[in-house]
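Two proteins, back to back. First:
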Amino acid sequence: MNKPLRHLLLLFVSACTSSPDDGTTTDCDQPQMVYPDGDGDSYGDDSGMRPSCDVPTGFVARGGDCADDNAAVHPDSKEICDTIDNNCDGKIDDADPNLDVASATVFYRDGDSDGFGELGHTAHGCVKPVGYATSSSDCDDTRATVHPGAAEICDHLDNDCDSLVDMADPGISDSVAFYRDADHDSHGAGAATYACDAPSGYIPLNHDDCNDGDATSYPGAAELCDAADNDCDGGIDGTPAAPNRCAGLVGTYSGSYTHLTQEKLGSTVINSMSCTGTGSASLVLTRKPGLQGSFTCVYSGGLGGFDSTQHVTLNATVGLDGTVKGTVDHVYDSFDSQHRIYNVTGTQTGSTLVLSGTGSWYPNPQSAVPWTVQFSFNTSR
């Protein structure tokens, strides 16, 4: 027999036959192991076990207490979140599968890592797991820019989770100042309207238009002969120091109009229509455009789709230096409303108005190639 076992048997015999000054009862047939219970939780400390015929005061008949100075710690205790092995199974807090979830914290999955989770996905624990948050107030867990306390910005999202989006939220941080642009010249005027998206008829930032009812008047525009301050420098038809420079150009200019339209294959002319005529144009400063006129053009050929008498309407602006820019509307066939609009340029002096232009067009859907156009005005007063 080995020495430890023999020593234990001797203790059992001694416990049943020795004197009672150690608190044990003698002469029992079945001695038992007893354990000191220092914290009174009915579980004793295994390290202090000894044999006895009865259970003396301060001892209990069962061991297993891993902290005999703490009555809340013993094998029947619930494992709770307190960094202690409450049930003496060798596992603490989250490491113990028997953790009492009532003592744990509820955490919420934080899919976008913004520090705020969502209600639908939870986990219980003593320590916050990776990918979870303590708050469940995220209204969009797919966007890190969306969470309570975020800055509300113009992006059509409820960034701060207060159920108010963009301009509906008084806390919006990046709204833009827009200004009414009534004449659509990309320059606004009047008081600012703040919004995330431009209201109809408004433009951002720019509010320097001196006349929002005139598309030819805005800072940087070319000054025209139209009795207006086009470039917003304070001078009408000129500069503040030298205004009203167009008086010498005002009047009616009469003369000729010529028009040539041809169908060509390479340099070979297949069809041709030419007409000449007369008419007049006048410059009036108080109307827009300032230079307007009409001419009649007579065609003597026989090509179908061309009236013998055709009409031309001129609309153009005149710069302070006499530069003319505008359009002509040439009606080829009034019966079929066949007409085309071409750009025209030229110069005007106090005595002459000389204009010209080029273009192309298809007289009908069967035309294989475009017909080229050349025209000119030569007038004087």
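And the second protein:
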Amino acid sequence: MGERVRDILLAVLTNLKRSGWAGLASIATISVSFIIIGIFLLLTLHLSALVAMWKAEFQVVVFLEDGITQEQLSLLRKRILNEAAVKALSYISKEEALANFKRELRGSEGLLEGLGENPLPASFQLKIHEKAQTPQVLQQFAAYLGRLEGVEDVLYGQEWVEKLSTAVQVLKILGISIGAVLAFGSLLIVSNAVRLAVYARAEEIEIMRLVGATRAYIGAPFLIEGLLQGACGALIALAFILATQEFTLKQLGLSTAHFLAGALFLPPWMSASMVGAGAFIGAFGSFIVTSRFLKL
């Protein structure tokens, strides 16, 4: 058993040496494919993290009429808090709204000179449960709030909800589509490289078959060769993406601690999956070629 493993490993090394430019082309193709796939995954992760952060801070602002009475205010508060979509409610008076506005204009307070009467309305700021933060639910909820007595207007940033949700979905679909096409292309390149290696050793393989070598024994070195090429290509892609990201962050003056709360790079399970996928593509391409050749 030990001698067989040694012979297979020696055959793998021989195949890798003989593959030359074809082998390098396989690794390069897989690397480029996984670089593109990795970039899409990274963009999707960052955008998803951004959406999650935005949803955590998301608020619906209910602007109140100036003439609202204390009784109407209390009744309105109760009605809103009874809604299932509402997680929390805070009341901002006209005075607090003006004070907050002045803080935002710090250094430019002169713009408020001669303002006279406070033009800012009182408001309720509502935190919404994440399950209710969809464009359809928010649109219906805002329409309902707008019909309540004492409500002047409702603001919730519908465009941002729709655009961010759409962007995440589009990136996922693009990533899956492009990833599938690139994976198929990589499979063809690896298959061609292994095919060249197989035909280069055709006479040697025929001799091995004549002396009783099994198909599994003959095909194992080529299978391992494809597996190593695929895994190597994926590892190179991960290293390239990481180096590029670090360089970009450095140029922007950002550090890992400031970048989306630690969502900097692909999580370990996703990186391992990419390496596994590369190894599978390489091994599967080799399996297809060797199986056909040995049948002939």
